[in-house]
Amino acid sequence: MIQYASIILIMLGLYGLLTNRNVIKIIISLNVFEIGLNLFIISVGYVDGGLAPILTGNSTSVLSFVDPLPHALVLTSIVIGVGTTALGLAFAKKIYAKYGTYEIDEMGVE
Amino acid sequence: MKKVLSLLVVLALGFGIINSLNQNSSFPKFGEADVSDRVSDRYINKNVTEENEEVIFGEDGYETGSSNFVTSIVANYRSFDTLGEVTVLFISAFGVALLFSKDSKRVSLNFKPNFMLRVGSRALFGLIIMTGIYISVHGHLTPGGGFPGGTMIASSILLLYLSNDSFRTKIKGFKLLEGFMGSLYVLIGVAGIYVTGYFLENFLDTGVVGDLFSAGIIPIVYVIIGLKVGSEIASIIDNFLTEEVS
Question: Could you give the number of structural domains in chain A?
């Protein structure tokens, strides 16, 4: 049931993307969207009472691990999120240097 | 008006997604995922081609000798995927560098770093960079690996930038290290073709599960990834902390 909270987070990010007209706020909304998506992927692999998917000397066959595949996929997604955020912020810095504002509505006047 | 409309769209979409997931019987309830029914079971038992058998800590002769299953997926089974991932990170770092290519003067900070900050950051720099390297090297045994380790290395560079107003790293050195590590990753993959016939296939001895020198190419690949990610993020930091010379 709790994994639907991450769907709500995704929808909050989408709402921010649709309504905001500020470049920085758009990038932050994109990040909220992405965090919700990552949480949802992680939650799909969760097993009640499962261990972290690392083999140690104490683990026996009775204990079960949580699904390691979503963790690996989310690792990829986090790294790509960092890259896109850095590139988006670089664009925002360039936009501010040219127009002197982050608001999309005030651009083009110079 | 626009806000009401987008609120309606978002509510409808969210309700649709939650409802369709709720109705779907093949979607597992939270905490009731059946790992033995999924492909991950093969990764946990370290056997993707033959029959399943239990993996025991401290023994050898498995497909991958990594005790961290996530690492064995990221750096061995899906290593080609990871190669694409570091390429995406490289392209974004390259794009940031292109956008700021004219800028070459260091941004001056709004505050004056005091004595404690300057001395403390120098003392902490070594500790943070050592922790980053430790996490990169032990990626196949403990949580972590090349990506978090590389980010910690870059955060130690950020500490130096914040504590000294006129500090700049040798950005050429980072670019060189990053390109060298990327080529080395591809070369390991090509060596896999030469020895076993498949790109990025493990061609070293997998060793005993739980040893530092085990798991074949996984630690090598993860140290390469750690240095590559660290140098990429450090060069992004340098690009953001420079400004145009007017």
Answer: 1
Whether residue A48 and residue B58 make contact (CB cut-off 8 A), yes or no, is no
Per residue, the 3-state secondary structure of B135-174, as one string, reads HHHCCCCCCCCHHHHHHHHHHHHHHHHHHCCCCCCCHHHH
Q: Which domain holds residue B103?
A: 78-246
Average pLDDT, chain A: 85
Q: Which pLDDT value is given to residue B192? A: 84
Residue B89 lies in a domain: yes
- Residue B172 inside a domain? The answer is yes
Contact B147 A46 (CB under 8 A): no
Give domain status of residue B49, yes or no: no
Distance from CA of A109 to the nearest CA of B (A): 23
To probe the interface with B, which of A65, A79, A93, A94 has the most B CB atoms within 10 Å?
A: A79
Minimum-distance CB partner of B96 among A19, A47, A90: A90
> What pLDDT does residue A94 have?
85
- Provide the domain count of chain B: 1
Domain region containing A78: 2-46+66-99
Helices (H) and strands (E) in chain A, counts: 3, 0
**Is a pLDDT exceeding 60 seen at residue B246?**
no
Q: Is residue A73 part of a domain?
A: yes
Note the ipTM here. Answer: 0.82
CA-to-CA separations, A37 to A3, A5, B86, B89, B143, in angstroms, rounded: 10, 11, 21, 19, 22
Across the interface, of A4, A53, A90, the residue whose CB is closest to B18 is: A4
Is the per-residue pLDDT at B117 higher than 80? yes
pTM of the model: 0.84
Residue A41 above 80 pLDDT?
A: yes
